[in-house]
Amino acid sequence: MVEMPMANVGRRLGRQLGRRMGHGGRVFLDALLPPQCLCCGAMVDRQGNLCAPCWTDMRFLESPCCRACGFPFPHDEGEDVLCAACSRRLPDFDRARAVLAYDEQSRSLMLRLKHADRLDGVPAFGQWLARAGAEFWHRADLIIPVPLHRWRLIKRRYNQAALLCQALSRQTGVETRLQLLQRSRATVSQGGLSRIGRDRNVRGAFAVRSSDRARLQGSHVVLIDDVFTTGATVSACARILKRNGASSVDVLTLARVL
């Protein structure tokens, strides 16, 4: 297992202590590890925040957008309008929404979460996701993360999608089951693959844990991942969830490639 840098060890231990000690713990944590912007590292007022310039540079995605995949429109075309891609073929999931456009600014945020142990932003990300998926919560039954294969999980030490699920569950009160969906086959990284290559890479790579199939029957699922690129991964997950009894599958991500 890869050793964690000492600064990240200290940050993680400080967060745990801060949670146990409440407000006093947060004050102690801020003194021990001064709050830094999640993107650029500038000093901010509290843990998990962005500085004003980085916040301004983020492109938050809002309506109007495609009813199905959430692709943003420059003008309001009406509630049920589909983008060109979804008009040609509806996705396997029901709806997808994202917090941010994936660009140079948000890319730094995603990489720090995924590979640099910057988990202090997870509570804030849970709040952002709750707002971005506001239309989902009135009927959502389960929040489920896109899973990592066990070997990749051992190497990375955590699944960022699972952490986002836990933070989102605390915000919405919707149950999360982190092990319901499993990656049954190891796949290569999706980075650098074409759309067709991504589809082939994840085909047959997911399975529903047998002990959770009964809970899945007729449920409205919200599937969580960090970045929506072509939709190949979440589509593969949506297909297997529906085959195993899910009534609908909505997708919610921190960012999406436009």
Describe this entry's structure for a reader.
This protein has 258 residues and is α/β, with parallel strands linked by helices. The protein has one domain: Rossmann fold, CATH 3.40.50. 41% of the residues lie in helices and 14% in strands. The protein contains ten helices and seven strands. The chain has helices at residues 6-32, 52-57, 84-88, 104-115, 122-132, 150-156, 160-172, 195-202, 213-216, 232-243, and strands at 95-101, 142-145, 175-176, 181-183, 206-208, 220-228, 248-256. The strands form two sheets. It has a five-stranded parallel sheet with strand order 1-7-6-2-3. Strands 4-5 form a two-stranded antiparallel sheet. Helix 5 packs across helix 7 (160-172). The radius of gyration is 19 Å and the shape is globular. The two termini are 35 Å apart.
The string of secondary-structure elements, in order, is HHHEHHEHHEEHEHEHE
Task: Name the helicity range.
Answer: 40-55%
CATH architectural arrangement: 3-Layer(aba) Sandwich
Output the radius of gyration. Answer: 19 Å
Distance between the termini: 35 Å
At CATH level 3, the topology is Rossmann fold
Tell me about the biggest sheet? 5 strands, parallel
Mean pLDDT: 83
Query: What would you call the shape?
Result: globular
The number of helical runs is: 10
Q: Report the top-level CATH class.
A: Alpha Beta
Beta strands, count? 7
Q: How many domains? A: 1
Low-confidence stretches: 1-11, 13-23
Question: Beta fraction of the residues?
Answer: 5-15%
Widest sheet: strand order? Answer: 1-7-6-2-3
